[in-house]
Amino acid sequence: MRKINDRFWLGLISGLGGNIAKIITEQVFTKIGYTKTNGYTTAAGIFLKKSRVASPSGRAVGIIADNMIAAGLGVTCIYWLTLMGKDKLLLKGAGLGAAEWAALYGVFSKLGATAIYPVKPEDAIATFISHLVFGMTKITIAVNLGDSRLFKPKNLTLEINHPQNLASEIKEKNNNLQPQKLLGKKRYVHSSDNSHRSLAHLQSHT
Fold first, then answer.
1. How far apart are CA 72 and CA 83, in angstroms?
2. Across the strands, what pairs with 146?
3. What is the rounded CA–CA span in Å between residue 107 and residue 114?
C-alpha cells in the first residue's frame, strides 16, 4: 500500500473520513434526545430557507453541502499539518475542529451565512463536540495515510513523485529496532562476563 503524496487528495479523503465520525457523533446525540440539529441542516441553511431544510430535497442539499465543506476543511488541514508538524496530532486536530466550529457555526452564522441561527445551547454543545471528533479523526487519517514528507514546512511546495510504501516503512522501523535489541543483549552478556571474572579473581585470592 502506497502512502498518498498529494495534499489535495489526502485532504479530501481525510475530510470525508472525519465527517463520517462527525455525523455518527451527531446521530448519537439525536438518538438520546439531547439535540435535534446536525451539521447537514446547518449546511442546508446556507442555500435554503429554514422552512425548506427539513424536506427530502433540503436534506439532500444539506448532505452534499456538509460533505463538500468537510472535504475543503480536510485539504486546509493538510497545510496546517505541514506548517505545525504532526506531533501531538490529537490535540492539534481538536484545536482545528474547535476553531472551525467557532468560525462556521459562530462567526459566519452570525453574519447570515445560514438560516439555522440562532440555536439552542444543547445544539451548540453537541455540534462543538462533534467538531472535536471531526478534527481529531481527519488529522489521524491524514497522518497515517499521508507521505511523511508532506508534513515538513520546508517541503510546502515540494512535488513528491515517488510516494512512500506503508509496508516498507513498517519493515524499516522494525529493522531499526533490531540493532538496539542486539546491542542491549551484548551489554548484558558483557556485564555478565565481567561479574564471572570478578568472582573468579576473588576466589583465586582467597
1. 17
2. 4
3. 11
Which among 73, 88, 62 has a CA at the least distance from the CA of 16? 73
Question: What is the rounded CA–CA span in Å between residue 123 and residue 36?
Answer: 7
Q: What is the mean pLDDT of residues 69-74?
A: 97
Pure H helices in the chain: 7-31, 39-44, 56-84, 89-101, 108-110, 121-145, 166-205
Q: Measuring CA to CA, which residue among 33, 68, 40 is closest to residue 54? A: 40
pLDDT at 186 over 80: no
Q: What is the pLDDT of residue 151?
A: 86
State pLDDT tens for residues 91-139. 999 999 999 999 999 999 999 999 999 999 999 999 999 999 999 999 9
Q: In 3-state terms, what secondary structure has residue 5?
A: coil
Task: Give dist(CA 98, CA 101) in Å, integer.
Answer: 5
Q: What percent of the chain has pLDDT over 70?
A: 74
Q: What is the pTM of this model?
A: 0.75
Write the CA distances from 176 to 53, 182, 183, integer angstroms. 56, 11, 12
Please give the grid coordinates belonging to residue 142. 491524514
